């Protein structure tokens, strides 16, 4: 039953064909068998999960079950969850048992979902390969020599390996879409402000956004119904009426205008990836979509703008890790400043330190205008590009990444090479738009390739509609790795 | 632009991260590579462009000035590195 979708599991539970305890046991057994080779989890707590599952079964018996009551799921280790270690992939928080839960976790709990465990990730969500985790790299279930993508690599690998039907994830510069693409699963990053950041360990606050990773677009829609919603504890949470993200899934695509940005198909795009995207576009055309040639001229500038804005915000956000109130504290120090400096040198990994140093520099006296302000102006140019494009089309399609998953170790020594691979995802975060990745094929090595769908602000239901119709006509999302 | 070792040491101090003398060359090289990438921004004319801080350009909400949280000192201090009598302990700051 571990191959089933969220939707199917919900139906099986409702029909009494399986109990939540039985289901959780199946997944926990599979995690126990396969996680040693994948390293997709940081924490698993069988007793606690089974107790939660038993409570869900009791709620069902009492007639209090909702649509997703008793369905198992996984949280990325970035979402604070009361009583669970919330490490964010860092030594700094290795001893942090969260005293409270994130809004997303509260919403999942309220919907009756039960937690199988906590997914591995790049430290503080900084990375594109999951090699930056204090707990070791996650392996791609399709090829154990390949990276699963990052930073939500544990979430994507766990769904791909059928260790969970669904996982939460976060996306600051592509961290839902890129691992979803590399692992052959479906993921959506909503419009900035749709999912509350309360209790989601902060990386770059003006870019961070939570979302689900699952097998199908339909499951993502169901999960987004749970995760989204106004929360006054997040100052940038948007006050909007609740929406049903499944409402448009079954709309036909006839007349849909899909924009293909020239810049996303230029030099640097792997030929196999290009072919997969062309085939996916051809499928949508077959369903009546019209292709529009568009331009996003400032795409290349998204890399320098992002690698100023995100580190700047990170350096501010991560100043809270000072060894005073929670987290790691160095063992030996001579005074307060020495304690700070040693605590942070020991607690943070190399990539996190690099980004904090970059951010500290660009925000330092005399450099603010030349870097942070300049990057924010370029951010506006990038957002304007999308506004112009969406005057001509309903959704934008393209690749998620220039290549399928690369090998573990291939780029880990060269941060700049790693940053360049984020070219197709960063601008979506800078503009605050929703984006998703849908399985669309494989490269010559048999590694998955995702189709990126970018929507206009609050266009999630439309994007999920496109993805669902694509999935009704293709079977890429049903393929699972042999493990 | 090229950061010197002194620059790197100054940034590390600002960031309160200890960077050892052995690490400083490698860290400096990596930062210089990253700034090489970032410098590409400087060639772009952004005169008259309004900086964008928030995707929806909404102003941040204000809340009522009322107590909304209950005191959870015990729960929060249970995970602290060092506490005494309800206080977080740090090395002596005032002689």
In words, what does this structure look like?
- The complex is a heterodimer of chains A (483) and B (95).
- Helices cover 38% and strands 13% of the residues of chain A.
- By secondary structure, chain A is an alpha/beta fold.
- In chain A, a hairpin with a 5-residue loop joins strand 10 (435-442) and strand 11.
- Chain A is globular, with a radius of gyration of 21 Å.
- The mean pLDDT of chain A is 97.
- The radius of gyration of chain B is 22 Å and the shape is flat.
- With 95 residues, chain B is mainly alpha-helical.
- Chain B contains three helices and two strands; from the N terminus they run αααββ.
- The two termini of chain B are 42 Å apart.
- Chain B has a domain at 5-43: Histone, subunit A.
- Chain B has a two-stranded antiparallel sheet.
- Chain B has helices at 5-14, 24-38, 73-77, and strands spanning 83-84, 87-88.
- The interface between A and B is large, with 73 and 51 residues.
Radius of gyration of chain A equals 21 Å
Question: Could you spell the SSE succession of chain B in H and E letters?
Answer: HHHEE
Total beta-strand segments of chain B: 2
How would you characterize the largest beta sheet of chain B?
A: 2 strands, antiparallel
How helix-rich are the residues of chain A, as a percent range? Answer: 25-40%
Task: Give a short synopsis of this structure.
The complex is a heterodimer of chains A (483) and B (95). Chain A has 483 residues and is α/β, with parallel strands linked by helices.
């Amino acid at each position: 039953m571990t191959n089933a979708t969220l939707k199917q599991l919900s139906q099986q539970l409702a029909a009494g064909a399986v109990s939540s305890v039985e289901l959780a046991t199946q997944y926990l057994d599979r995690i126990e068998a396969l996680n040693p080779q994948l390293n997709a989890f940081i924490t698993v707590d069988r007793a606690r999960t089974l107790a939660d599952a038993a409570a869900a079964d009791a709620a069902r018996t009492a007639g209090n079950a909702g649509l997703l009551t008793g369905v198992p799921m996984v949280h990325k280790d970035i979402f604070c969850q009361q009583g669970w270690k919330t490490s964010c992939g860092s030594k700094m928080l290795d001893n942090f048992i969260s005293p409270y839960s994130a809004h997303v976790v509260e919403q999942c709990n309220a919907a009756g979902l039960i937690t199988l465990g906590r997914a591995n990730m790049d430290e503080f969500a900084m990375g594109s390969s999951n090699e930056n985790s204090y707990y070791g790299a996650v392996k791609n279930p399709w090829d154990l020599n390949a990276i699963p993508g990052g930073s939500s690599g544990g979430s994507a690998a766990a769904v791909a390996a059928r260790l969970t039907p669904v996982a939460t994830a976060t996306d600051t510069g592509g961290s839902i879409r890129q691992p979803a693409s590399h692992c052959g699963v479906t993921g959506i990053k909503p419009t900035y402000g749709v999912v509350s950041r309360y209790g989601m360990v902060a990386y770059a606050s003006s870019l961070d956004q939570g979302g689900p990773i699952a097998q199908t677009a339909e499951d993502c829609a169901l999960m987004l119904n749970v995760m989204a919603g106004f929360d006054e504890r997040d100052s940038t949470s948007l006050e909007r009426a609740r929406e049903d993200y499944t409402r448009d899934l079954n709309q036909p695509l006839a007349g849909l205008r899909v924009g293909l940005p020239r810049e996303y198909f230029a030099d640097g795009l792997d030929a196999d990836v290009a072919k997969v995207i062309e085939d996916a576009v051809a499928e949508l055309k077959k369903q009546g979509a019209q292709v529009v040639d568009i331009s996003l001229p400032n795409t290349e500038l998204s890399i320098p703008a992002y690698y100023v804005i995100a580190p700047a915000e990170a350096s501010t956000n991560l100043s809270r890790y000072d060894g005073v109130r929670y987290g790691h504290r160095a063992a030996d120090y001579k005074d307060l400043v020495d304690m700070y400096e040693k605590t942070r040198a020991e607690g943070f990994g190399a990539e996190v330190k690099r980004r904090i140093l970059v951010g500290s520099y660009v925000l330092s006296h005399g450099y603010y205008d030349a870097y942070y302000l300049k990057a924010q102006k370029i951010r506006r140019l990038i957002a304007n590009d999308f506004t112009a494009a969406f005057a001509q089309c309903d959704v934008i399609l393209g690749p998620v990444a220039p290549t399928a998953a690369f090998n573990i170790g291939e780029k880990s020594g060269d941060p700049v090479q790693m940053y360049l691979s984020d070219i197709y995802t960063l601008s979506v975060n800078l503009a605050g738009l929703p984006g998703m990745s849908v399985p669309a094929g494989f490269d010559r090595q048999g590694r998955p390739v995702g189709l990126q769908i970018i929507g206009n602000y609050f266009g999630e239901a439309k994007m999920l509609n496109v993805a669902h119709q694509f999935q009704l006509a293709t079977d890429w999302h049903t393929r699972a790795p042999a493990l | 632009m090229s950061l010197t070792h002194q620059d790197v040491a100054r940034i590390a101090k600002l960031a309160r991260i200890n960077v050892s003398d052995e690490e400083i060359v490698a860290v400096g090289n990596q930062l210089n590579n990253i700034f090489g990438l970032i410098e590409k921004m400087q060639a772009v004319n952004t005169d008259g462009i309004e900086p964008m801080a928030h995707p929806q350009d909404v102003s941040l909400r204000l809340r009522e000035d009322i107590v909304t949280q209950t005191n959870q000192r015990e729960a929060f201090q249970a995970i602290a590195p060092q506490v005494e009598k309800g206080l977080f302990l740090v090395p002596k700051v005032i002689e």
